[in-house]
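Margin note: ligand = tryptophan.
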Amino acid sequence: MGKIMLTGDRPTGKLHVGHYVGSLKRRVELQNKGDFDDMFVMIADAQALTDNADNPEKVRQNIIEVALDYLACGLNPEKVTLFIQSQIPELCELSFYYMNLVTVSRLQRNPTVKSEIQMRNFEASIPVGFFTYPISQAADITAFKATTVPVGEDQLPMLEQTKEIVRKFNSVYGDTLIEPDILLPENQACLRLPGIDGKAKMSKSLGNCIYLSEEPDEIQKKVFSMFTDPTHIKVSDPGKLEGNTVFTYLDAFCRPEYFAEFLPEYANLQELKDHYTRGGLGDMKVKRFLNHVLQAELEPIRNRRKEYQKDIPYVYEILKKGSEKAEAKAAQTLSEVKAAMKINYFEDAELIQSQTKRFSE
Ligand code: TRP
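Resulting structure:
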């Protein structure tokens, strides 16, 4: 059996540096290592609509933004199938059958869905589609027989739920579906990159994101305004690293060679941290260094994005071709699923024969 990667993002906004260190960077590395037999990256517009049903234009506009961000990060459409979820009707069909294998109380216990319901003030009026999106996500993953799903930590409950559906399906209908493994970032700082205000999660509505397509002066402005250690007032004060966003970002983004390039007085990140905690190192100096680091990381991404922006019809063509390829694969899985569930009536000669016999006796 092959190694297959599948992952995706909801097109509700441009992608930011949290998406990058949390998953995008990993996808590009996996692509370049080349040990997957097939790789799929999905723009999850149908899932985005589960809590944006009244705002289809937002989802439509952001499809191209997310596609550009993918290509900008270095996903290569020759190696990775980029596609749009809603264009694969087989995913809806699979979801419908999986719904029979999941209880309402199990969905209610999904911690990510729980906290999203709270965040959106949905308590009294949860759309059914939103409530059941973990089931549709199981369809996304299993339709491609994915073995590996690189995502952020918040997606762990979805993967758990997918595995349960796979086990249940296989035990009731016979071995058909593949249990996927989640692939989380190894670096602790990348697991959940905070916003520039130090808040737990980067989000568009909080206005605390640095986007992948951000211009250099904006990046600098955001870095200079970052949350640090509020008790570190004078340069001579000892500083704290926990909860200090600037250092969390350095943990996530800094490469050893950046010291020689931008801050040669220090040999490595540990020396910089030691000086900060000892006292005598000002926030501004660390922020200037982080600015250099982020500028170096984001410049090639921004430039690649600008190249693709010059040929938008080509980007849509990539998505169209990808969606065709993805649909062929999902259709294959769906036909296996229907055969296992005994809902294939017309291509089953044995069924017709046995029914013929039954009624002639
Ligand atoms: N839930 C994911 C997100 O919010 C998007 C997504 C939809 C996804 N289907 C998926 C991720 C399948 C991985 C696998 O970003």
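The chain has two domains: 4-192+312-353, 216-307.
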